[in-house]
Amino acid sequence: MNLYELNQLAIQFRLDIGINLNDPIDFFPVITNKIKNLTIVFLDMPEDISGACNIINSQKIMFINSYHSKGRQTFTAAHEIFHLFYEKPIFTICNVNSDDEIEKRANQFASFLLLPTGALYNYKKENNIIKWDLNSIIDCEQYFQISHEALLYRLMFHDEITKDEFNSFKPKIKYHAIRRGYGLSLYEPYIDKNYTIGNYARLVEKAFERDLISNGKREEYLLQSYLQDLVYNLEEL
Ligand SMILES: [Zn+2]
């Protein structure tokens, strides 16, 4: 699959879940809403593992490193979508810097999914960007909620910035974002602990409501997936 085909695949995926090509995506709520059989587990993982995925009984499951920034977690989720939707359903672990061809392809797909090429050039035109600088780059990554590093790679990929510019724009992003009036949410984890969102809780609650499992079993399943809030903290929710 070449880069043009990967971009087309990402565009088609956006259209299939009803997201316009030029719009930013609030990624986790949107995929949790649109992909009904998807469960996302945030997990304490080593720094160099970005995520993993598997398909069990037609349920799509992705694991995301709970230490990474929201930008990185979003990119990982988009990367796992490539494995879950366009490859054979086998358990896959994804390293941060892998040279594996499939991993590189999943990264390209993720980049195109979060920021279609047309959307990038549209944004550039609408904002009268002649030459990318740190101001326009931070504005753009905040608008599309894409990680700083992913946007820099993407701009270098399109020859919009040089390797030297990449290196000079990369460091101290939190400092540069705060100075430009942005909050830090993109650069800190979306969920920073072991936690599960998506279809799993819906399946457990449905099974309990239909008397297919006892309350003891329900609690066991919820605790196994780090949803202790639903077992112990109901008063506070
Ligand atoms: Zn992967």
Note down, in words, how this protein is organized.
- There is one protein chain.
- Helix content is 52%, strand content 12%.
- By secondary structure, it is of the alpha+beta class.
- The protein has two domains: 3-193, no CATH class; 199-236, no CATH class.
- Strands 4-2-3-1-5 form a five-stranded mixed beta sheet.
- Helix 1 packs across helix 4 and helix 3 (70-86) crosses helix 4 (101-114).
- The longest helix is centred in the first third of the chain and has 17 residues, at 70-86.
- The radius of gyration is 19 Å and the shape is globular.
- The termini are far apart.
- The chain binds zinc ion (ZN).
- Zinc ion (ZN) is lined by residues 79, 83, 92, 94, 103, 106.
Largest sheet: 5 strands, mixed
Q: Report the β-strand fraction as a percent range.
A: 5-15%
* SSE class: alpha+beta
Mean pLDDT: 95
Q: Kindly report how far apart the N and C termini lie.
A: 46 Å
- How many discrete structural domains? 2
How many strand elements? 5
H and E order: HHEEEHEHHHHHHEHHH
Placed side by side, the strands forming the largest sheet appear as 4-2-3-1-5
Topology:
Elements: H1 3-16, H2 27-34, E1 38-43, E2 49-56, E3 59-65, H3 70-86, E4 92-95, H4 101-114, H5 117-126, H6 134-144, H7 148-157, H8 163-169, H9 173-179, E5 195-198, H10 199-209, H11 215-224, H12 229-232
Parallel strand pairs: 1-3
Antiparallel strand pairs: 1-5, 2-3, 2-4
The protein binds zinc ion.
Zinc ion is lined by residues 79, 83, 92, 94, 103, 106.
